[in-house]
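U., I forgot to send this yesterday:
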Amino acid sequence: MQSGLARIRDRFGSKQGGEAEGSEKKLGTFAGVFTPTVLTILGAIMYLRLGWVVGNAGLVGAIGIILLSHVITGSTALSVSSIATNTRVGAGGAFAIISRSLGLEVGGSVGIPLFMAQGISVALYVLAFTEAWERIFPAHPFVLVAILAFIIVFAIAYISIQFAARIQFIILAIVGFSLFSIFLASFPALGGQGLNVEPTLIGEFSDRSFWATFAVFFPAVTGIMAGISLSGSLKEPRRSIPLGTMSAIGLTMIIYLLLAYWLSRAATTEELLTNNTILVDKALVDWAVLAGMLGATFSSALGSLVAAPRVMQALAENQILPRSKYFAQETKSGEPRPAMFATGIIGFIALLGALAGGGLDQVAEIITMFFLITYAMLNVVVLFEQTLSMVSFRPTFSIPRLVPFIGMVGCVFVMFLINPAFSLVASVLVLGMYFFLARRNLQTVQSDVRSGLFTSLAEWAVQRSGQLPSAPERTWKPMVLVPIRDTATLTGSFRMLMAMTAPQGGVQALGIHPPGDTERLKDLDILTAAFRREGIYAQATMIEEEDFVTGVRAATQVLRTSFFRPNMLFLPLRPDSDLNQLQQLVNKTAAYSIGIVLLARHPVIELGREQFINVWVSPQGPDWAIDLKESNLDLALLMAYKLAQNWRGHINLCMAVPDATSQEKAAAFLNELRALARLPGDSEILVYEMSLGAAIAAAPRADLSSFGLPAIPDLAFCQRIVEQVDGSCIFIRDSGIESALV
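Result:
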């Protein structure tokens, strides 16, 4: 069954002559990209504010603002064009591009401000239309004209995107004629006023600073979103977006530069600063410029009101907005009516706010910020795609990596120069939306490149770490290899493994099964996913091997060369355990620099309250030197610390000694050991002048007792100790690469 977005993409009929039904209504390059982009760029700001920009900044300052704006917009347009020739840009334009690369969380956090900016843009262009109307009919109430203009724009957009597109062709002709009328005014022989004013090269910025002036002008060049946002309604977005957008930007940049020069020669600085409709007064045919002014501002409002609902619909299709199911709806002809009504409400509220005192310039500044954020993220997407060097990113329109970098840095730099406080608020708003969306666990976009990004970072880290001196003792973290024949073993050890590895450790589940028999391991991926949900790195590996010991040995030898290599082997010690098999595993992994942790759980008590841990240390006489490598204590102390940290438990350092002389030395040794190992301050020192068996009976009851495992262990003896303790025990042997004292 076709999705709503797919119907938007495919609803406009096929070409005549028998192509797929429904593509005859799709838009081409000229109608779908070039025309709306040109009309949005040659709109309100050009007619009503370019003269003020030249008067305030001077000719050189105005040219600088125009060029800087086009560098940012041009870089972004090149970036988007590159993406458009690599993959089909889905409905929603910029939102679709960002989501496909960086995920729905990032796409949504930028897409929502983009939608708001486009919705508010409607108010900007309606205000500009009203200013032009007031020039013709000064007696008409400004507020009433603005509200009526908004209603008419909404009505046209409501009827159909095709109706809006047809009107734009007429408006494009009117705008072209108005520019021709301005050009003809350069020649006195034709009745024009000519270019008689000596231009002011450097303005005094008497009204606003350079960056505030830039903020007022910048919405003029944000028209690239008009075509990109209609990507789902284009016949060939891969061809139309690059061709239509870049040609529109090139043409309009030339027009703006020529107009800036023309204005500096046609009017004085005072006229430019005080007369918002200076182009009307200086043109050869004033009514032509008025018609162009009305047409351009009207079409810009129309373009924003057509594009914004489609961004909102794309957001709703991906369950990003509240009541997404409602806002994702569309008519049989593909018009997103609920999203259009929502856009109309936002635009109307923004219009009322501007009419109440905000004004056109303030609305322009707000729009500038949100568009700069969107442009920055579009450039980030391309920069990531280029940096990852994945085969899937092979656009037919390639650009140097410097282009998106310039666009990204330029957007961020300009944002904070214009208004640092608002830029900070906007950035925090975007980050807040990102974290909110991240908590909702949105469905991952199929072509999301975030995993590729992290893979590339990991590859870089592996290469760099291989070039640096090894420091395993300082960088040690628990990475546990858990060999199992069935998932019940892993399930039973889940809480213990959590306590051993959280928060930065990892679990490598090794499922070993006879040939063709995987039934007992079918839930292995579910269990490793449970570890990951708790924030612990976990993955599962399956090995087909009849002999359990052979399988573990083979996996241990292979995994010891991996980057995230296991540094301890976790094995259960049960009353019914095959001691011969366990003995082989313990003995034969000694040469692989991997620690051993044998867990013997009490059949009734299990891990009790998960509070008290008794660490039994063997006597270190006669010299009682702190040498943990010789005494096999490093891993035992590190495990005790991890367990106490995650259980919020209490450690007892215990020792049984043969006489009173040794008792004093043992206490001093354990106190020094506690200090050097930086164990919790409430850890207790317990020294017993008696045999180990008697000391175990005398010691406080623990939820877990820890004992060292000799190089050549006696597992039968370990089982007897478990019986004496009458509680759960772990038997630990160092790997030789960890240290509790670093």
